[in-house]
């Protein structure tokens, strides 16, 4: 029995402080929902969790990019559908112009409507855009040809794809010819613009020449629309995959970072009981010096 150092009380106080810290830690975890709040709580787990969080944010942004790509393809598809409808009407008018019952006035009206339809075609091809990006006008602000757009469709380097753009203006679509290098090239005398400006509806071969141009332009539109449809399907598939990857990564990050509330409540309750027990024991242990004092008093009375 000692007066200067109450060893029992000191031991109880040491355990009391330890339980108090554990109780405070449990309370902090329960209130935040995380078992790793600062790096010292788990350096390795913290680094793993942070890398996963960065990956998750990248996947979320990639999904937004892909959704933008889907919307862009839908915009392009709507415009291409309109262009094809216009060419269908132009073809009807060309065939109609071949009727021998047409008067010169009828032919003039037919040619006027053909020209108006081609003007409407040019307006759509020139002004179709998505978020300020021209889809069928391949000239940028510097007058240079833009033949593709790069789309980031993943969270990592290299997860991108190029979307080829096509110039569908009236002077760029029509029948092709083989040049000196054995490559296909648009024949300037077989374009929609040439049909509008140069072909005379009164010529005997007007129908044949016009149909060749319109059919070639229509085939180009259908081909481009088919390619953009395939790209749209790829975007839809990629969007689903990115969503699956994000959920899987979030699940893994949650196992590392998030606290099990039930388990932590058990720890919080346990340490709370131990703290109350420590308080009670310190009250008892602090009576030891008083017991020593009573012994001394008894000695003095004798």
UniProtKB/TrEMBL annotation:
Residues 211-296 form the Flagellin C-terminal domain. Residues 4-139 form the Flagellin N-terminal domain. Its main location: secreted. It comes from the Bacteria. One of its GO terms (cellular component) is extracellular region. Pfam families: Flagellin_C, Flagellin_N. SUPFAM superfamilies: Phase 1 flagellin. InterPro entries: Flagellin, Flagellin_C, Flagellin_C_sub2, Flagellin_N. It is found in: Secreted; Bacterial flagellum. One of its GO terms (molecular function) is structural molecule activity. Keywords: Bacterial flagellum, Cell projection, Cilium, Flagellum, Secreted. Transmembrane segments: none annotated. Belongs to the bacterial flagellin family. Flagellin is the subunit protein which polymerizes to form the filaments of bacterial flagella. This is Flagellin.
């Amino acid at each position: 029995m000692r007066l200067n150092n109450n060893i029992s009380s000191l031991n109880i106080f040491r355990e009391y402080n330890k339980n108090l810290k554990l109780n405070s830690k449990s309370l902090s975890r329960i209130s935040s929902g995380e078992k790793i709040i600062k790096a010292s709580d788990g350096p390795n787990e913290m680094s793993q969790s942070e890398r996963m969080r960065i990956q998750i944010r990248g996947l979320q942004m990639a999904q937004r990019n892909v959704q933008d790509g889907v919307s862009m393809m839908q915009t392009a598809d709507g415009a291409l559908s309109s262009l094809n409808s216009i060419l269908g009407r132009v073809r009807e008018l060309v065939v109609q112009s071949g009727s021998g019952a047409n008067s010169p006035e009828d032919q003039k009206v037919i040619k006027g409507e053909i020209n108006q339809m081609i003007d409407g075609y040019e307006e759509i091809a020139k002004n179709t855009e998505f978020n300020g990006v021209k889809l069928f006008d391949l000239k940028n602000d510097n007058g240079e040809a833009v033949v593709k757009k790069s789309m980031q469709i993943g969270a990592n380097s290299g997860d991108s794809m190029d979307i080829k753009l096509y110039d569908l203006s009236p002077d760029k679509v029509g029948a092709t010819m083989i040049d000196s290098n054995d490559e296909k090239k648009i024949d300037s005398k077989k374009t929609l613009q040439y049909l509008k400006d140069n072909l005379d509806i009164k010529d005997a071969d007007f129908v044949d020449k016009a149909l060749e141009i319109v059919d070639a332009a229509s085939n180009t539109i259908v081909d481009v629309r088919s390619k953009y449809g395939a790209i749209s399907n790829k975007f839809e598939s990629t969007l689903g995959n990115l969503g699956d990857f994000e959920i899987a990564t979030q699940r893994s990050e949650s196992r590392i970072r998030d606290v099990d509330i039930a388990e932590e409540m058990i720890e919080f309750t346990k340490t709370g009981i131990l703290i109350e027990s420590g308080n009670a024991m310190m009250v008892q242990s602090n009576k030891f010096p008083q017991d020593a004092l009573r012994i001394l008093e008894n000695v003095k009375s004798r």
